[in-house]
């Protein structure tokens, strides 16, 4: 999608994405740019966990803090296959909000929208993807990497293609 933008359009898009949300109403062009950025992030991340053993990945400078706080706050959250209600319901939001806010100023763009896979053994498809904040993405994906949940993606990418 972004490849279709010329240099001037790409620069304008980058500038638009740096402005505060209050500068926009529900501008469909901005929503499209955000969606493109989220998709590109998802594509890069999936390629990364497909080519590098996930247990060795470091996603942020604060991985230790994120993982520790995540498991302290959400110790029983099932992360291999997420239930969207555990992220989006009102009770879940009440629990996630203070967790997320702890990373303001610690993780750059902690509250940006990001795509998150529901079932970590599968790729990004419309049925397997939800919209989450970047800190939710980091918390869940750091846990998935450390706890071996993303090994299925890495191992299947290493298998030779079958004819």
TrEMBL record:
GO terms for cellular component: cytoplasm. It comes from the Eukaryota. Residues 30-154 form the Polysaccharide biosynthesis domain. InterPro entries: PBDC1-like_dom_sf, PBDC1_metazoa/fungi, Polysacc_synth_dom. This is Protein PBDC1. The gene is PBDC1.
């Amino acid at each position: 999608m972004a490849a279709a933008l010329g240099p001037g359009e790409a620069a304008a898009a980058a500038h638009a994405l740096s402005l505060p949300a209050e500068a926009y109403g529900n501008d469909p062009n901005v929503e499209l740019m955000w969606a493109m950025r989220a998709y590109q992030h998802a594509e890069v991340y999936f390629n990364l966990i497909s080519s590098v053993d996930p247990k060795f990945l470091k996603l942020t400078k604060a991985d230790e803090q994120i993982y520790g706080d995540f498991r302290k706050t959400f110790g029983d959250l099932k992360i291999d296959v997420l239930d969207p209600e555990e992220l989006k319901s009102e009770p879940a939001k009440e629990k996630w909000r203070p967790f997320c806010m702890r990373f303001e100023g610690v993780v750059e763009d902690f509250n940006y929208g990001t795509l998150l896979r529901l079932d970590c053994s599968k790729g990004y498809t419309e049925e397997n993807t939800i919209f989450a904040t970047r800190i939710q993405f980091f918390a869940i994906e750091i846990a998935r990497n450390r706890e071996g949940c993303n090994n299925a993606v890495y191992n299947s990418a290493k298998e030779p293609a079958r004819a």
